[in-house]
Design brief:
Length: 309
């Protein structure tokens, strides 16, 4: 995989990490890493940073749109090597400090990612002393013009970042620019503005409200956590906001999770998973083989036996 970045707007650089994106924001004297991909991506990110900003380059800080494993996976390794802090919204703190796990992924929701989520075990994340609560009014210290926008739904403390001067929106997973429910769309990297991924979104009313909030910004450039950054996306984004639909079924569709400063307070019961069985096992096995190359690039992490269910 190439480790080069592409400048998609003034001082905003896109780094694709297989099926998830990271971004560098700023310049050689003061830049920030937004999200860090799956575990195991630290060497690639470091190489891309040095290619962009010079040997020994390191950011002022690492900023997380949220703490799901595909965004936080390499944050601790990089923070230790670079000796920097990792900033996230206060509502993410329980899930990034080892006090709680995120709600389980929902394999019964519709779509490709939900199907393969059966292979993703729960993971404990503890960033320890590197973790710091973000200042929403000054998310990138020393870089004027950016604001943080709380966009819950996909996760409790999900944050997007917007620069009003040129309409750049770093949307995280509040919006995707690829249909994550379709394997073909993922492999083709087909650009389209879509709702957040179904297996990991745990509050659909909030997710809809967040999309409406972001559509009202009328961004000129939409750069999400999944998919290729898109120009001229205003019309599609407004369409999504105007006609946002919940998944047809799934654990979190009729009842969202509830959280407080300690973590989960309400977790909807798990629905019956109809997939197990001979026929379904064949289908799932076929999917596993089909996405083996992608999964192998996600990085290695140690499954944790602890499960919230």
């Amino acid at each position: 995989m190439a480790s080069s970045t592409k400048e998609i707007a003034r001082g905003v650089f896109h780094l694709p990490l297989s099926v998830v994106n990271a971004y560098f924001v700023g310049d050689k004297g003061n830049w920030f890493l937004v999200d860090s991909g799956f575990p195991g991506k630290a060497p690639l990110i470091k190489k891309a940073a040095e290619a962009r900003f010079g040997a020994g380059a390191h950011p002022t800080a690492i900023i997380l749109t949220h703490g799901h494993i595909d965004h936080v996976g390499s944050a601790q390794a990089l923070a230790e090597e670079w000796n920097v802090q990792v900033f996230a919204h206060p509502a993410e703190m329980p899930f990034l400090s080892g006090r709680a796990q995120y709600p389980p992924l929902d394999p019964t929701a519709p779509g490709f990612l939900a199907t393969i989520s059966r292979f993703f075990p729960p993971v404990d994340v503890n960033l320890g002393s590197r973790l710091t609560a973000m200042d929403e009014f000054n998310p990138f210290p020393g870089l004027p013009g950016w604001k943080a926008i709380h966009t819950p739904g996909h996760s409790p403390g999900h944050i997007a970042f917007f620069r009003e001067s040129d309409g750049v929106l770093l949307a995280g997973d509040a919006i995707t620019t690829v249909n994550t429910e379709s394997l073909l769309s993922i492999l083709r990297k087909k650009k389209e503005v879509c709702r957040p991924a179904t297996p990991a979104t745990t509050d659909w009313p909030q997710a809809r409200a967040s999309v409406i909030k972001l559509a009202a910004l009328r961004p000129g450039l939409l750069a999400a956590g999944h998919g290729v950054p898109m120009l001229n996306s205003k019309s599609q984004l407004q369409q999504l906001a105007d006609h946002f639909t919940f998944p047809s079924h799934g654990r979190y569709v009729t009842e969202p999770v509830r959280v407080d400063e300690k973590g989960l307070t309400v977790l909807p019961p798990a629905p019956v998973d109809q997939a197990p069985g001979i026929a379904a096992s064949v289908v799932v096995a076929g999917l596993a083989v089909g996405v083996g190359a992608l999964y192998s690039k996600f990085g290695k992490y140690v499954p944790k036996p602890k499960r919230i269910a």
